[in-house]
Amino acid sequence: MKSLELFAGAGGLGMGLHAAGFVPRRVVEWDRYCCDTLRENQARKIASVGSWDEIIEGDVRNVRFGDLEGKLDLVSGGPPCQPFSLGGKHQAYNDSRDMFPQAIRAVREARPKAFIFENVKGLTRDAFRNYFEYIRLQMEHPEVVRSNEEAWEAHHSRLERHHTSGQRTGLHYRVVTRLLNAASYGVPQRRERVFFVGFRDDLDLEWSFPNETHSLDALIWDQAKGTYWDRHDVPREQRAMSARWSARAARLDEAPRSPAWRTVRDALAGLPDPQHAAEAAAHLNHRYQGGARSYPGHTGSPYDEPAKTLKAGVHGVPGGENMLLKPDGTVRYFTVRESARIQTFPDDFLFHGSWTETMRQLGNAVPVTLGKVVGESVASLLKKTEKSKR
To answer: What pLDDT score was predicted for residue 89?
Structure first.
């Protein structure tokens, strides 16, 4: 199946979708370091990006997609999240980095069978509720275009009138949205992202988001019963469940059926301590970064829980949450390789740039596994549709 990947970043979403069966005909990303990372891994024939076609380094506003009309199964991407990020300036529709209009333009020009877009949890806040609905309506009716002099509020009202009129001629999509926690889909990180998934109206398809596969209760059960610690060969004197979970553990009467949330310890299994430089050198991007310190609001990720959300290191958060909190209470920065493990990138994927730059790439990325889970569900439905037509 053919796709178009926008705002590709370091490739997390695109790689997950590729694993689900989508091959990008075109990839668009403006950041030079991200493009260097993608091109390097493409040249190295890394499975997850080696078969990608054209990578365009530049402003998406200068790229046209009409030549892809009728040739794509999917358009996907993560428009820049800073306008809506909890750690940002919260300018939303007044922020020049709001690229949702460009994502919708790509859908309008390429007319794919489906699309998948994602963004930060902050977009779902009450302060952005009207704009969230505005984005959704634009995705549903991409040919109802905002004029040059039209305020977004006026365009929103026009979209509402069009939507309630029942007119479905031209290009329309059936759109659903949901806030997904990556930890509940096997990613060793508590990372919440809002997804927009749409299917072209004429396909007449029904779809829902995939069910969660992993649970916190299963992790608590495994730690309370000792199976988690046994699996990692943790000495009994070092086995310490989070105090926050103790009361919840007491209420569990039987083992949950789902697999457990994955933890930092799970994610880093097999990687040597980066302070042992000779051993660490055998692993890509696994170099110790000194200077970590804990301060209020930035205390690191406990070893035996899913990691906190990795951050891109902007707006006064210079890697503050990109730290490992060891069982002895000390902290250190995650290496780039450890962060890539937490974001479920493959170990043979090489990142370009300094530690700060690569952490920005990783902090902005969609976990590969989460992209794959959503992508597989969409791909499965599209494949069934193709088979039924034959």
So the answer is: 46
For the chain, what is the HEC assignment?
CEEEEECCCCCHHHHHHHHCCCEEEEEEECCHHHHHHHHHHHHCCCCCCCCCCEEEECCHHHCCCHHHCCCCCEEEECCCCCCCCCCCCCCHHHCCCCCHHHHHHHHHHHCCCEEEEEEEHHHHCHHHHHHHHHHHHHHHCCCCCCCCCCCHHHHHHHHHHHHHHCCCCCCCEEEEEEEEEHHHHCCCECCEEEEEEEEEHHHCCCCCCCCCCCEHHHHHHHHHHCHHHHHCCCCHHHCCCCHHHHHHHHCCCCCCCCCECCCHHHHHCCCCCCCCHHHHCCCCCCCCCCCCCCECCECCEECCCCECCCCCCCCCCCCCCCEEECCCCCEEECCHHHHHHHCCCCCCCCCCCCHHHHHHHHHCCCCHHHHHHHHHHHHHHHHHHHHHHC
Write out pLDDT tens, residues 153-173. Answer: 999 999 999 999 988 889 999
Tally of domains within the chain: 2
Same domain, 35 and 184: yes
Domain that holds residue 174: 2-212+367-389
Q: Let me know whether 241 and 118 are in one domain.
A: no
pTM tops 0.85, yes or no: yes
CATH of the domain at 116: 3.40.50.150
pLDDT tens digits, 337-388: 999 999 999 999 999 988 889 999 999 999 999 999 999 999 999 999 887 7
Residues with a known catalytic role: 81
